[in-house]
Write a structure and sequence with these properties.
The structure is a single chain. By secondary structure, the chain is of the alpha/beta class. It has one domain: Decaprenyl diphosphate synthase-like (Undecaprenyl pyrophosphate synthetase, 3-Layer(aba) Sandwich). The chain contains eight helices and six strands; from the N terminus they run βααβαβαβααββαα. A six-stranded parallel β-sheet has the order 3-4-2-1-5-6, sandwiched between helices. α1 packs across α2, α2 packs parallel to α3 and α3 runs parallel beside α4. The protein starts with 11 loop residues before the first strand and ends with a helix. The structure holds 3-methylbut-3-enyl trihydrogen diphosphate (2 copies) and magnesium ion. One 3-methylbut-3-enyl trihydrogen diphosphate binds next to α1.
């Protein structure tokens, strides 16, 4: 943490928390054991993000595609989600964390949806870290919804096709309120984005690690930010242009 440049902390970090199942298998346990241990990593990373001054932390917790897992695993994950939200909300609230969620939340079991809404409501005025859970989320789902809304506006004459800009698209995604993530982390050695924030990650820096999510803790989170800080973000320009501007 001491090595981090306080002036170059990403405002928004997005994480694909992957590898819980493999972690459990390595211990000779059921996959769900790994999901439980993964909650400890979530707690630690949320704390670390707040401490270093990250403003938004988006965690990919359950994808649209994850509904296709065996029913026992889906049910166990939903139960774990309810239990975790209910157990962690008091501490999150105390730490000034504001909880939000993106995704097809209506598709969650009703108990889960209600627990989530309650926690979002409890923490809504907090001014610290905004913790965004991506639940029943997929980027293609989100883009389809956004395109439908835009098409409605065009059909009703409120919007001209020619007036559609990058901003129009961004404002019709679930992430409309948030700046794009500068850093995306994926654990467990997989090098793909699995339908996560396709539009929003257009210029993000990616940090991939073999560490499985239950083993991903503060130290490696700082390592990821450190790696981010050593990258040169050029946005299509030349390196010379970037160093000229820094002078
Ligand atoms: C990530 O771990 C958690 C969820 C997708 C819910 P996995 O459950 O994908 O674990 P692996 O990738 O099978 O090891
Ligand atoms: C991505 O992990 C989704 C979450 C971490 C919630 P998966 O384990 O579902 O991804 P794939 O299917 O292996 O790409
Ligand atoms: Mg996985």
């Amino acid at each position: 943490m001491n090595l981090l440049n306080k002036d170059k902390i990403p405002q928004h970090i997005a994480i694909i928390m992957d590898g819980n199942g493999r972690w459990a298998k390595q211990q000779g346990e059921d996959r769900i054991f790994g999901h439980h241990e993964g909650v400890n990593s979530v707690r630690e990373i949320v704390e670390a993000a707040g401490e270093v001054g990250v403003k938004y932390l988006t965690l990919y917790a359950f994808s649209t595609e994850n509904w296709n897992r065996p029913k026992e695993e889906v049910d166990a994950l939903m139960e774990l989600l309810v239990a975790t939200i209910s157990m962690e909300t008091p501490q999150l609230h105390k730490n000034g964390v504001k909880l939000e969620a993106i995704g097809d939340l209506k598709s969650l079991p009703v108990g889960c949806f209600n627990e989530l809404q309650e926690s979002i409501n409890t923490t809504k005025d907090n001014k610290g870290l905004t913790l965004i859970l991506a639940l029943s989320y997929s980027s293609k789902w989100e883009i389809i919804n956004g395109v439908k809304e835009i098409a409605e506006q065009v059909a009703s004459g409120k919007l001209k096709p020619n007036d559609i800009t990058e901003e129009t698209i961004s404002s019709h995604l679930c992430t409309a309120k948030y700046p794009d993530p500068e850093l995306m982390i994926r654990t467990s050695g997989e090098h793909r984005i699995s339908n996560f924030l396709l539009w929003q990650l257009a210029y993000a820096e990616f940090y991939f690690t073999d560490t499985l999510w239950p083993d991903f803790r503060k130290k490696e989170f700082y390592d990821a930010i450190n790696a981010y800080q050593s990258r040169e973000r050029r946005f299509g320009k030349t390196s010379e242009q970037i160093s000229e501007k820094a002078k």
